[in-house]
From TrEMBL:
Phylogenetic classification of the source organism: Bacteria, Bacteria division CSSED10-310
Stored Pfam families: Mut7-C (PF01927)
Residues in Mut7-C RNAse domain copies: 7-152
The protein's name: Mut7-C RNAse domain-containing protein
Alphabetical list of InterPro entries matching this protein: E6_sf, Mut7-C_RNAse_dom
Source organism: candidate division CSSED10-310 bacterium
């Protein structure tokens, strides 16, 4: 990842928040995001980028943001929302997919299979060898068919971009 960013997404952008995590970015879901709450702390954090569907948040922000530090998302579909973020910020092709917890955004760590035995269904335990766990919310991940499906969806989104490496 060429640059370290932290995304702050508003109440209507839960899916976008999740997909940013899937491709490896730190992304915080902030349902309380409003012009006067959070805009300021985010502005002070040089890595923070606000993603919002609220025009008033962009127009009435008490803070004068630099270009692209606050992005008004103009589509309802997460695929187009992600495409907009990728295009505006020129995000590179994801090199760190599935390294973060989709639920809470924390970095995942590989875990010894025997340690999670009682937490996953028996057939999953027997048919998979590598497991990752979120140390924060304790959710367990393994590469299943949904990984392939999500990878394909991401590849499709990036295929819309002619010049991104
Ligand atoms: Zn988690």
């Amino acid at each position: 990842m060429s640059k370290k960013w932290i995304f702050f997404t508003d109440a209507t952008l839960g899916k976008l928040c999740k997909w940013l995590r899937i491709i490896g970015y730190e992304s915080l879901y902030c349902p309380q995001l409003s012009p006067h709450r959070l805009a300021l702390p985010v502005a002070l954090d040089e890595q923070g980028i606000i993603l919002t569907r609220q025009k008033k948040l962009v127009e009435k922000s008490p803070v004068q943001f630099e270009a692209n530090r606050i992005i008004f998302i103009n589509d309802n579909r997460w695929q187009n929302q992600l495409l907009q973020v990728i295009t505006v910020l020129q995000l590179p092709k994801p090199a760190a997919m599935f390294t973060r917890c989709v639920k809470c955004g924390h970095i995942l760590t590989e875990t010894d299979k025997t340690k999670i035995m009682i937490h996953v269904p028996a057939f999953i335990y027997q048919s998979h060898h590598r497991f990752h766990r979120c140390e924060q919310c304790e959710r367990i991940y393994w590469p299943g068919t949904h990984f392939k499906k999500m990878s394909d969806q991401i590849a499709q989104i990036f295929s819309h971009l002619p010049n991104v490496e």
